[in-house]
Design brief:
The chain is mainly α. Helices cover about 90% and strands about 0% of the residues. Helix 3 runs antiparallel to helix 4. It starts with a helix and ends in a 6-residue tail after the last helix.
Length: about 150
């Protein structure tokens, strides 16, 4: 475009009578129309770039907000998983102790020692306490699972 304009300008203004700085300045000023055109295009390009960057920043903010939500959900799930693991370990421990105590009662019943037979009532009370704890632990596990959207039948 610039080259075509220069050729047209030289064609219509030829012959140039002398070559001087003043005449070269006048010749350079004759490109003012193109200078204005390209300056306007550059300014328009900057405005478009700013608008696109603004839109991209809005998308990044939205993505960051969604990432925070997902991170929060993940943290909650990990916390519930840790609670479930601890409760399950406690439940297993109680069940092992109940099994051990029941075996102890069976041994005491087989024994003819009266003192050991009297210990059975104390052991049965401990077993009932452990079973009560198991019921509380089971209800807590069910509550956590229900809060997570998992229903137990």
């Amino acid at each position: 475009m610039v080259l075509g304009y220069a050729v047209a300008l030289l064609y219509f203004t030829w012959p140039i009578s002398e070559i001087s700085i003043n005449k070269a300045g006048v010749f350079g000023d004759s490109f003012g129309v193109l200078t204005s055109l390209f300056s306007g295009l550059a300014f328009s390009g900057m405005i478009i770039t700013i608008l696109l960057q603004r839109q991209e920043l809005q998308l990044q903010r939205l993505e960051l907000k969604e990432s925070r939500k997902e991170f929060s959900k993940s943290a909650n799930a990990q916390e519930k998983n840790a609670q479930l693991s601890a409760l399950t370990a406690l439940l297993n421990n109680n069940n092992e102790q109940i099994t051990y105590l029941e075996k102890t009662i069976d041994k005491n019943i087989d024994s003819k020692n009266r003192h050991r037979i009297e210990d059975n009532t104390r052991i049965e009370a401990i077993i009932q306490g452990r079973q009560g704890q198991n019921e509380l632990i089971s209800s807590k596990i069910t509550e956590i699972l229900n809060d997570s959207g998992i229903e137990i039948k």
